[in-house]
Amino acid sequence: MYIDTLIRIMNALQRNKERVKVPYSKMDLEVLDSLAKYNYLDEVSRKGRGVKRIIDIKLKYDQEHKPVISSIKLISRPSKKIYLGWRDIKKSKQGYGNYFLSTPKGIMSGYEARKNKIGGELLFEIW
Fold first, then answer.
1. C-beta contacts of 22-25 below 8 A and 24+ residues apart
2. CATH number corresponding to 72-126
3. b/e map of 9-36 (b: 16 or more CB within 10 Å)?
4. Domain 2-59 CATH assignment equals 3.40.50.920
5. Percent helix, strand, coil in the chain (nearest 5)?
6. Taking all residues of the chain, what is their mean pLDDT, rounded to a whole number?
7. Which of 9, 13, 53, 98 makes the best surface tag, with the fewest CB within 10 Å?
8. Residue 1: is its pLDDT beyond 90?
């Protein structure tokens, strides 16, 4: 589940790790690819075969070796799912953060969802 993956990433950033390895799932890979697309992660790659598949994540830091990701706020949980229409999607942290949504066209940021006029399940906020 993507929630466990995001928590592993935050823990690794706090310990200044360079890489994180997480179990493979299609949802996790989509979420991580969208994070890499918005320059929150350096590199995401799938490794292994069969049941031994993993996702190898290279974390991104700035010039002063501070993490690019300050924090992640999980919004939808398995017990409580939050859905938004495209008109209800607002800017995160006055434009400094991003919301990520699960839409019928895949995982995308709040900006992309507003632009394409697509609503969906609000997964998490990152800044």
1. 22/54, 22/55, 22/57, 23/53, 23/54, 23/55, 24/48, 24/53, 24/54, 24/55, 25/1
2. 3.30.1490.10
3. bbebbeeeeeebebeeeeebbbbbebbb
4. no
5. 30, 35, 35
6. 96
7. 53
8. no
**28: pLDDT strictly greater than 90:** yes
Length of the chain: 127
Residue type, 78: P
Contact call for residues 23 and 54 (beta carbons, < 8 A): yes
Specify the pLDDT at position 120: 97
- 65 Cβ partners below 8 Å, 6+ apart? 16
| Mean pLDDT within 63-92 | 95
Residue boundaries of the structural domains of the chain: 2-59, 72-126
